[in-house]
Design a protein that fits this description.
The chain is mostly beta strands. The chain has helices at residues 15-26, 93-99, 124-129, 169-179; strands at residues 3-9, 30-32, 41-48, 63-71, 73-74, 85-86, 105-109, 118-119, 122-123, 139-153, 156-163, 184-194, 197-198, 203-204, 228-229, 242-243, 249-255, 258-266, 269-275. It is elongated, with a radius of gyration of 22 Å.
C-alpha cells in the first residue's frame, strides 16, 4: 500500500499519534508531512509506504492557516500551553493591520525556543524545559499573506496566514506583538492547507477502519505537480544517465504504464532520482 492519506487532525492529539494509527490501519510504515502541535488542528498529510520517500519534494510547499493571537499576555512556549505572563497593552485593529506588511514577504524569523530546532545536538524544547540559556539562529522564511480577520475577544484577534514551509505561526504572534510594543501568544491554530492537500478533502481519523482505509489512499503520482517523462530509454531504470530533449527539471517517470518514481533532467541528461517501486 503506497500513497497519501489527507488526515484532519483533531485538537488534543499529537501528529505522532495520528501517524501511528495510520500505520496500524494500513499495516505499512507511514510518516506525517509537517508536524502540527497537539493544540492545533487541521490538515496533516500522512505518507504511506514508499510515498514517504517524497517528503523532501513537499518541504517548501505553501501552507494556509487560520490563527488566533491573544495580546497583552505571553507564555514561554508562545502558545496557550505555557504559563501566562501578563504585561503590555491590547492594540486596536487599525494598529494591527498597519503592522502586518512588515511581516509579509521574505523575512528573518527566530524559531521559538520551545521547538524541535537543535542547539549543539539538543532540541530547543529540551534546553528550555531544563532552564538553560541559549539562542536560536534566525532563518529565512516566506509569508505570502498575513491578513487580519476579526476581533474574537477583548484581547484576541483572528488572522489568515499563507506561508512557506518552516514558518512558525507562534513566532509571528511574538514578532507582531513586538512591532506593536506589547506581548502576545498564539491561542488557537487551524491548518487549512498543506500544498495540494486541503481541509475540504481531509478525513478525520475516527472515520478510518482497516476495511475502508484504502478508499482514502491518494495515489502518489496524483499529488506531484510534475510533467510526465515520455518515451524513457530503458537504461534509465538501471541507474544509467541517458540523453534526452526535455527541459531541465523534475519529471514523473513511468515503466510499462506503472508509476516508477522521479527523473531529473539537467543539461540534456536524464537520470532516475527517486525510485518508488
Amino acid at each position: 500500500m503506497t500513497g497519501f492519506i489527507n488526515i484532519y487532525k483533531e485538537e488534543g492529539v499529537s501528529s505522532a499519534f495520528v501517524t501511528n494509527r495510520v500505520k496500524w490501519l494500513c499495516r505499512t510504515p507511514a510518516g506525517h508531512m509537517g508536524t502540527l502541535d497537539p493544540l492545533a488542528e487541521g490538515v496533516l498529510p500522512v505518507g504511506v509506504g514508499n510515498a514517504t520517500r517524497l517528503f523532501d519534494y513537499f518541504s517548501g510547499k505553501t501552507k494556509g492557516y487560520t490563527a488566533r493571537f491573544r495580546f497583552g499576555v505571553t507564555t514561554p512556549t508562545l502558545d496557550r500551553e505555557g504559563e501566562q505572563v501578563f504585561g503590555g497593552r491590547v492594540p486596536n485593529a487599525e494598529e494591527i493591520a498597519a503592522a502586518l506588511p512588515e511581516l509579509t514577504g521574505e523575512i528573518e524569523q527566530i524559531p521559538p525556543k520551545y521547538s524541535a530546532k537543535s542547539v549543539n545536538g539538543k532540541r530547543g524544547y529540551e534546553l528550555a524545559r531544563a532552564g538553560a540559556e541559549f539562542e536560536l539562529a534566525p532563518k529565512r522564511v516566506r509569508v505570502d499573506d498575513f491578513r487580519l480577520l476579526e476581533q474574537t475577544g477583548t484581547d484576541e484577534y483572528s488572522f489568515e496566514i499563507t506561508c512557506g514551509g518552516g514558518t512558525y505561526i507562534r513566532a509571528l504572534a511574538r514578532d507582531l506583538a513586538k512591532l506593536l510594543g506589547t506581548n502576545a501568544y498564539m491561542s488557537a491554530l487551524i491548518r487549512n492547507r498543506s500544498g495540494v492537500f486541503d481541509e475540504q478533502t481531509a478525513v478525520r481519523l475516527d472515520k478510518l477502519t482497516r476495511e475502508n482505509v484504502e478508499e482514502f489512499l491518494i495515489p502518489t503520482e496524483s499529488v506531484l505537480p510534475y510533467p510526465v517523462f515520455g518515451a524513457a530509454d530503458a537504461r534509465i531504470f538501471n541507474g544509467v544517465s541517458v540523453p534526452c530533449d526535455n527541459a531541465d527539471g523534475l519529471y514523473k517517470l513511468y515503466r510499462e504504464g506503472v508509476f516508477y518514481g522521479l527523473a531529473r533532467v539537467q543539461n540534456g541528461i536524464a537520470r532516475a532520482e527517486k525510485k518508488l517501486c
